Amino acid sequence: MILEKIEKSPQTLRDIVQARMREAIFDGRFAPGERLVERPLCEQLGVSRTVVRETIRYLEAEGLVEIIPNRGPIVATLNRDQARQIYDIRRQLEGAAAAACAQKQGRDLGPKLSAALTTLQEKIHDTQWVDFLQATTHFYELIFQEAGHNIAWDIVQRLNGRISRLRTLTITDPTRERPGMSHMVAIHDAILSRDAQRAQLAVENHIADAAQIANRFLQEAEAGLDHG
Amino acid sequence: MILEKIEKSPQTLRDIVQARMREAIFDGRFAPGERLVERPLCEQLGVSRTVVRETIRYLEAEGLVEIIPNRGPIVATLNRDQARQIYDIRRQLEGAAAAACAQKQGRDLGPKLSAALTTLQEKIHDTQWVDFLQATTHFYELIFQEAGHNIAWDIVQRLNGRISRLRTLTITDPTRERPGMSHMVAIHDAILSRDAQRAQLAVENHIADAAQIANRFLQEAEAGLDHG
DNA sequence: TATGGTAATACGGTATACCATAAGATCATT
DNA sequence: AATGATCTTATGGTATACCGTATTACCATA
Q: A96 vs B92: CB contact, 8 Å cut-off?
């Protein structure tokens, strides 16, 4: 065998619709708790019910939508306890990935990670927070890949989907001085100096910080709802 | 309010089909790599294609089936690396749950956990390994619940689905002396004595042990395939 | 017998129409 | 104002048809 298998991209309608809806949920065009009525969705997207329904099943399994019996799907909501749990799991998985990455890194990681960090620093004051989020994701993706923790990465990404609103909130918060950046630098340095323990700690600090801000947001939101 | 909410079982066809297929994959009636052809499935289950397809989307998101482009769904396969990763994640999540459970347990946990352990000891030599597996699941479920880690529990259960074959293999292995039991006792004792660190270690030992056996199995299987 | 071409088949991907039922909203009635 | 009847909306589920593509089986030919 000399030739490698030819890679066609048979992207199905499902894949597209899935991406679209995920996107819409991520940047809040579908608010949490909002109903996802099938037929209007079909019209908006210009696809049949079959496609929409299959997509909804998929997103349901991902935890992005919830099904109310005999009522249909709604965009999943998130309370403070769930958020806490999610950040806690992320802390574990990302910490472990960083540690593993620090240990087993190949010689081509250094440049790539540094480049990712640079992009991050460029995008930090960008008005397009989406870009910054994406850069953050890419930074962590590198770490997970190098660590060989791709299943954990899948899990983390899925969890991130469920807290996407929080992530944008914490990023776009004007009162925040974005201390995240210093953490990222710490993570980068620790990994490149092959210090597993320090890398893990840096990640855990980063997440703990984010979790705290998220918690504050949710607290305010819930308080606001009470006497709203 | 005096009367409690009446629990209708709005179990949809989808739910049933989902449970059936998951079951079938779990106990190997659908072998890994086997194709899941829609129309025959519809006939076997007596439902329409829509239901089957929606189910498949859900199981796809769970990682239980894979979709091959232009070919359709197959039962997901598992290689050694993936198994290693899954056991690694389980080690983290279950360890953390045990630690948290040891700390924040209420006074009604003791009896329940002890009862679960007893059931476990009864079922250990049962010819119906399914029962033993179920008892194990219940034991851990108690721990996660008490710890308040229900999202992590979802993740663990999903991961367990992907290694279900391995779990039955490790349990039904005649050469194994089921050292799992002693670990379970250690976990139980550590939690009841509120020793978080010891509980975590006990869990980690338990999983490490299982992972090792699973790894041996897969190694043999892969070697067997090579010159088979 | 090996090669190449072609037809048949199988199956996923997609669309549409239909029915039954549950939940919610509206409105009339007492 | 509580009750009850009715209408509307939308889901849950089914059946059916169509297209495109991949695989397979078959056949002809060199």
A: yes
